[in-house]
Amino acid sequence: MANKLEALAHGYRLVDIRPDLALQQADAILRQFPRDSQAFCLLAAARRAGGNATAAAEAERKAIETAALDRELVQAAGALVGNDIPTAERLLKQRLRADPYDFPALRLLAEVAARVGRFPESEKILRQTLVLAPSFAEAKSNLAQLLNKQGRSPEALALLDELEDDGELTKATRALRATVLGRVGRYEEAITLYRSALEENPNEARLWTSLGHILKTVGEQDDSIAAYRRASELRPSMGEAWWSLANLKTVKFDEADRAAMAAALGGSDLDDNDRWHLHFALGKYHEDRREDEDAWRHYAEGNRLRAADLRHDANADTDRVERTIRLMDRAFFAEREAQGDPSPDPIFIVGMPRAGSTLIEQILASHSQIEGTSELPDVIAIARSIGAKSDGIGYPEAIATLDAPALSERGRNISSAPASTASRASRSSSTRCRTIGSTSA
Predict the structure, then answer these.
(1) 318 and 409 together in one domain
(2) What is the dihedral of CA 138, 140, 144, 147, to 10 degrees?
(3) 345: Cβ–Cβ under 8 A, 6 or more apart, which residues?
(4) 285, 311, 337: which is the final residue of a domain?
(5) Which of the residues 114, 209, 242, 345 could staple to 431 if both were Cys, CB 3.0 to 4.6 A apart?
(6) Domain boundary residue among 296, 311, 326?
(7) Domain count of the fold of the chain
(8) Mean pLDDT by groups of 10 residues along the chain of 441 residues
C-alpha cells in the first residue's frame, strides 16, 4: 500500500510540469491495481492537465464507480449512514492525509462537515472537490443543496442548471431543483417539475409534501390539502405532512386522523423530525377540541424535541446584537450617507415576535402597489455572505470593510430578490414588504 501511495504522490508532482509522464504513472498504477479509485483520480488529473477534458471526465466517472467498491470508503460511508460522525471523519481524514487528491473521499468529508453544521467548511471542501473533478455531478448537487440550505438559492440554481445541461439529473437532484425554483419565486416551473417527478414516482410521499408546499404558496389550497393528504396516506409516519395540514389552520382533523398520528408516534423507527411534527399536529387536534391539557402536553414535547434539534444559542444572539449596537452608531451611518442602493423598496417591518409585525405587513400588502413577501431568508443570506468573504472578520464587523460599490451591490441584491406570494404575477410594479422578526444572521 505504501508503494502505491508513493507512486500516486509522484504522479501528482508530475501533473503540472509533465502531464504526459503523470499519465504514464497513472497507467502503470492501474496495471497493478486495475480497480483502484485513487489511481483513476490521478488518471483524471493527468488527462485534464494534458487538455483532454472528455477523457478526464471518463476517468472521473471510473474513479467514482470504483470508489463504491473501495473498502476504506465503504467503511467511512457506513459510519455516515449510521450517523457515527467521529468515526467517518477520522477514517476520511486519515485517507486524505495519504492522498489529498482523492475527490470521492473529499465529497464524503464535506458531508461530514455539513452534518454537524460546519457549512463554510463543507462548501470549501466541495469546491475543492469540483476543482479536482469538474464533472462530479453528485458533488455539484451536494454543493447546490448546501447553498440552498443557507438561503443562497440563486447560486444553487446556477449549479443545477449546469447539471441539467449535462443531462445528469437524478431523481433527488430534480426534486432539489424544484425546491430551489420555489425558493427563487419560479413557482409554476417548480410545480411542473414536481408533477413530472410524481408521474414517474407516484408513491413518493416526500414529493407529494413538497408539491403541497408550493401549491399552498400560490394559493391553491384545495390542491395543497390533497397533496398533503396523499403524502400522509402513503407514509402515515411523515410528520411534516400532518403538521403542514394542521398549519393551514383551515383543516380540522377527525378521529381517524388522530388515531393515525398516534399510531405513527408509537413506531420504534420514527426519527425526531417526524416525531416533533406529529406532536405539533396532535396538539392542534386537541386544541381545536378545547382539550387543553392534552394539547399542551403534545406542544411541550414537540418543543422539547425541536429545541434539541435547533441547538439555539441565546448568548450568541445577545452578543451579536450588542456588537451590532456598538458598531452601528450615528457616526457609522453618517459616514455612509447616500451609499447603498437608492431604490425605495423593500419596506422593512422590524419587530419582536408576537408584536404585530405580520399584521402590519398584511395591512400594507392590501394596497394595490405593495406586495407582502413574508420573512424571506435573503437578508440573513447576504449577512452570512459578507462575513464569509471578509478574511476571517465575522458579521456584523465585516460590514465596516465594505466600500460604497459593495454596499450598493448588496442593496440591489435585497431589492431585486424574488417575491414569494401568489400575487406577484398580478402586480406589474409593486413595492415588496418584508417582515423581519428576531431572526439572526
Answers:
(1) yes
(2) 120
(3) 415, 431, 432
(4) 311
(5) 345
(6) 311
(7) 2
(8) 82 93 94 93 94 94 94 94 92 94 96 91 95 93 91 88 68 86 89 92 94 90 95 95 92 95 89 93 95 96 88 84 93 91 82 82 79 66 68 81 88 61 37 47 35
